[in-house]
Write a structure and sequence with these properties.
CATH superfamily of the largest domain: Transferase(Phosphotransferase) domain 1
Family: Belongs to the protein kinase superfamily.
Shape: globular
Number of domains: 2
Helix content: 25-40%
EC number: 2.7.11.1
GO molecular function: ATP binding; protein serine/threonine kinase activity
Mean pLDDT: 80
Structural class: alpha+beta
Bound molecules: adenosine monophosphate
CATH architecture of the largest domain: Orthogonal Bundle
Low-confidence stretches: 1-55, 209-223
Order of helices and strands: HEEEEHHEEHHEEHHHHHHH
Number of helices: 12
Protein name: non-specific serine/threonine protein kinase
Number of strands: 8
Catalytic activity: L-seryl-[protein] + ATP = O-phospho-L-seryl-[protein] + ADP + H(+); L-threonyl-[protein] + ATP = O-phospho-L-threonyl-[protein] + ADP + H(+)
Radius of gyration: 20 Å
């Protein structure tokens, strides 16, 4: 199904439009919790995200999709490349097993992911199109990110150069500005939660879901502590400024290949984070050092703003961000 050369799946030729997967002219809206719970227990198998009250909801079931190759495995199920039969459009279909989620008591996190992500529309945020469920599984219909996880790409490359990292910094800052304006804080920015689009552009994924479900991969290495800001370690209330800390850690990890406060033990990592014990390898440019040091400030109020990240001289000199074309008559 996948053409490795250009990252385009074979056989899926028609451009995908988000609205075609939704029920009406409006963006999908999530059903109230009680209604979702009811459907989860009755397991009708044909439920989905509702739409504007003026339009009948478009109902999906697994029969509406051709299932392709697995894209990856998550804690609660698998993700598949899929084609919406009626539209000849590709999506990523995330299949989550209710029993596993119930066992871990994380249903509320799934709700959070749906509620938050369904309302965000930005070129650097993975689109959430719809959901439906049957008796045993919940299916999330998501934008397909052809170049996969940034984490794997970083493992493959070892580290990224200034151009690539600065481009990611501009993309993620712009996406987070959009989120923060809507009072959404991601709180779990790290390469595992970032996917890459067709042109390699960054896509923030896993809204609200990974917040309290740290990836096992990092837990086995050194936990997810590497991206934790001091205020979260100390148990203080935190604001959107936690995301500024995280993109500082991300910038460092992209350029160096490992996160700045990594140690062999949790307690040592905690200590290094609390002291902001930041050390740069020799090859890191002055501009990148300046950006990282002004994001990794212990006091949230002292961190560089997202707008100033985008305008930072090192980002401006190195970013190669290209925005997707907006066709006449369409809304971005
Ligand atoms: P998750 O359950 O979200 O952790 O996803 C498991 C794996 O599936 C990820 O590590 C990705 O490699 C892959 N994956 C998840 N969502 C997508 C997507 N929308 N497009 C492409 N690959 C994805």
């Amino acid at each position: 199904m996948q053409n490795k050369e250009n990252h385009e799946p074979r056989g899926f030729t028609r451009p995908f439009t988000a609205t075609s997967l939704m029920a009406g002219p409006q963006r999908a809206q999530v059903k109230p919790r009680a209604e979702m719970d009811h459907n989860a227990t009755t397991g009708s198998g044909r439920e989905c995200v509702g739409a504007s009250s003026s339009a009948a909801p478009k109902k999906f079931s697994i029969n509406d999709f051709d299932i392709g190759r697995p894209l990856g495995k998550g804690k609660f199920g698998n993700v598949y490349l899929a084609k919406v039969k009626a539209l000849d459009s590709i999506v990523a279909l995330k299949v989550l097993f209710k029993s596993q989620m119930e066992k871990e008591g994380v249903e509320h996190q799934l709700r959070r992911e749906i509620e938050i992500q369904a309302h965000l529309k930005h070129p650097n945020i993975l689109r959430f199109y719809n959901y439906f469920h049957d008796q045993t599984r919940v299916f999330l219909v998501l934008e397909y990110a052809p170049r996969g996880e940034m984490y794997k790409e970083l493992q493959r490359c070892g580290r990224f150069d200034d151009q690539r990292t600065a481009t990611y910094m501009e993309e993620i800052s712009d996406a987070l500005l959009y989120c923060h304006e809507r009072k959404v804080i991601h709180r779990d920015i790290k390469p595992e939660n970032l996917l890459l689009g067709y042109r390699g552009e960054l896509k923030i994924a896993d809204f609200g879901w990974s917040v309290h479900a740290p990836s096992l991969r990092r837990r086995t290495m050194c936990g997810t502590l590497d991206y934790l800001p001091p205020e979260m370690i100390e148990g203080h209330t935190h604001s959107e400024k936690v995301d500024l800390w995280c993109i500082g850690v991300l910038c460092y990890e992209c350029l160096v290949g490992n996160p700045p406060f990594e140690t062999a033990s949790h307690s040592e990592t905690y200590k290094r984070i609390m002291k902001v014990d930041l050390k740069f390898p020799k090859n890191i440019s002055d501009g990148a050092r300046d950006l990282i040091s002004t994001l990794l400030r212990h006091s949230p109020a002292d961190r560089l703003s997202l707008k100033n990240v985008i305008d930072h001289p090192w980002v401006r000199a190195n970013s190669r961000r290209v925005l997707p074309p907006v066709f006449p008559g369409t809304k971005s």
